[in-house]
Design goal:
The complex is a heterodimer of chains A (382) and B (110). By secondary structure, chain A is an alpha/beta fold. Chain A is built from 14 helices and eleven strands. In chain A, a hairpin with a 4-residue loop joins strand 10 and strand 11. In chain A, helix 7 runs parallel beside helix 11. By secondary structure, chain B is mainly beta. In chain B, strand 6 and strand 7 form a beta hairpin. The interface between A and B is medium-sized, with 36 and 29 residues.
Chain lengths: 382, 110
């Protein structure tokens, strides 16, 4: 059975404001070309395409393949919010293993105006359109504001604890040339940030941006000889695990964590870094906890002693909160960052000797919190 | 039915209640996740207690936004609903539920 390996990766710089003439098509074109160039392949070498783009309408994945000049044997399009990147990687891994495709490009991109994003959030699904938009919820900020209050109460957290995470991610972003916000952030600035939905400030909410990222999944023998292939040790997903009947402080990852680590054959202590979908700081902490990476569920201590000190590198791209949330590309951000770190091509933010990394996806807020989750453990081939 | 009639406030919030096991859900479901029955009927819940509140002070791409007060409330039966409020309400306060169209709201019980 072919063993899947990631052999190329690319990102286009995130931006808050599109340049004239740019749109989701130009962003997608650019990043696919960059990823293929990075893998030293041509479009004719590609026989699989995974699409993680939320603003592609009215086109579909096959329209995109046509425009990109790709003739394919395998194609998929994900609509699972922030977990779409991990979801698509999971499908692509099985396609390579099954022999359905030999070179798959997975591309995430979004480039649209803020007004279009706001309209999309208002009409995201039936429950939010009918029951939340009319009461002025204004997107997920308000829902995660109340979830954050629950987490603060349940785990004894203070605003400063979230601040330490956000400030840490901003410091990592200084080394990421594609991040939108790279200047240092102080605790005083964080605490005085403009309140968006109590208690969340603008620093707790991901800045919507335009951006694109892509990776090439194939087999190790197709990897350029001057770099190590990145192997997939394990990938697990969970959808609608609690029917929205819980408090949102647990995600579906809590139900697959044991399976993930057992399949990977390594554990949390073996990870060189982790990139957790950070639509809000509370969800980074929830996912770390669900994956059993926080001893004794002492979240407060973990933030102070491991994340703020960089003893355990978290969201080294800066995460969505500093690099920017570029729709579908945002759901790829963590996976792409772990790939770069394991390739030892992360520049100023490189984690020394990175060998294993975990990336997650989280999203598709059905009503009160996200319902789609996934996690992948990647390894630098030795 | 006119828009005004459709959106007129009515007491209680509509839920779906399973004809198999009696469990009630908001938002409505098609199949009961507890017993698997596909048979549901409309019912109403009328009272709840406030668990968390927030005030939406800014909204993306909205220039003339006015702050909106929201709460997560729990009914005696256990449904957890996000409702609009007329103004600030304390945690633990009891609210009377009503809906305008499909939009759920709560008002403090005096």
């Amino acid at each position: 059975m072919p063993i899947p390996a990631i052999i190329g990766v690319a990102e286009k710089k995130n931006t808050r404001h599109l340049e004239p003439g740019e749109d989701v098509n130009t962003y997608t074109r650019d990043v696919v070309a960059m990823a293929l160039d990075d893998a030293r392949l041509k479009p004719k070498d590609v026989d699989g395409l995974g699409v993680v783009i939320f603003s592609l309408d009215p086109d579909k994945a096959v329209d995109l393949a046509w425009r990109l000049g790709l003739s394919l044997k395998w194609i998929i399009q994900a609509t699972h919010g922030g977990s779409s990147g991990v979801n698509t990687l999971g499908h692509a891994v099985r396609a390579i293993e099954a022999g359905d495709a030999s070179v798959i490009v997975v591309v995430g991109a979004d480039a649209s105006a803020r007004t279009a994003r706001a309209a999309g959030s208002a009409n995201y699904n039936r429950a939010r359109r009918d029951h939340l938009t009319p009461i002025g919820y204004s997107g997920p900020n308000s829902l995660f504001a109340m979830l954050t209050q629950r987490q603060m109460k349940a785990f004894g957290l203070e605003r400063e604890d979230y601040g330490r995470l956000v400030i840490s991610q901003r410091a990592w972003a200084a080394g990421n040339p594609v991040a939108v916000y790279r200047e240092p952030l102080t605790m005083e600035e964080y605490l005085k940030g403009r309140v968006v939905a109590d208690p969340l400030t603008l620093y707790d909410c991901p800045p919507t941006s335009s951006g694109a990222s892509a990776f090439v999944l194939s087999t190790a023998d197709r990897c350029p000889k001057d770099r190590k292939p990145i192997l997939i040790r394990a990938i697990k997903q969970c959808y609608n695990y609690d029917h929205q009947d819980g408090d949102g402080l647990r995600t579906g990852l809590s139900t697959v964590a044991d399976d993930l680590w057992n399949a990977a054959g390594v554990g949390p202590k073996d990870m060189s870094l982790g990139c957790f979908y950070d639509d809000y700081p509370a969800m980074v902490l929830a996912q770390l906890n669900d994956l059993k990476m926080i001893p004794n569920e002492n979240i407060r201590s973990f933030v102070r002693e491991k994340i703020a000190t960089r003893q355990f590198p978290v969201n080294t791209s800066g995460g969505l909160l500093s690099a920017g949330q570029a729709g579908g590309a945002g759901g790829m951000l963590g996976t792409v960052e772990v790939i770069r770190q394991l390739q030892h091509r992360a520049g100023d933010r490189q984690v020394p000797n990175a060998r294993f990394g975990v990336a997650t996806g989280y999203g598709q807020v059905l009503y009160r919190y996200g319902a789609a989750t996934g996690a992948v453990v990647l390894e630098r081939q030795q | 039915m006119s828009t005004e009639e459709k959106n007129a406030a009515t007491d209680g919030i509509t839920i779906s209640r399973c004809n198999g096991c009696g469990a009630g859900y908001f938002p409505t479901r098609l199949i009961c996740p507890k017993c698997g029955s596909p048979s549901m009927k409309a019912d109403k819940v009328h009272n709840a207690v406030v668990e968390e509140t927030t005030c939406v002070r800014h909204a993306a791409a909205q220039e003339n936004w006015t702050p909106k007060h929201l709460a997560t409330v729990r009914t005696p039966e256990g449904q957890v609903i996000v409702v609009g409020l007329p103004g600030p309400v304390d945690r633990g306060a009891k609210v009377q539920l009503f809906e305008e169209g499909m939009a759920p709201y709560g008002r403090p019980v005096k």
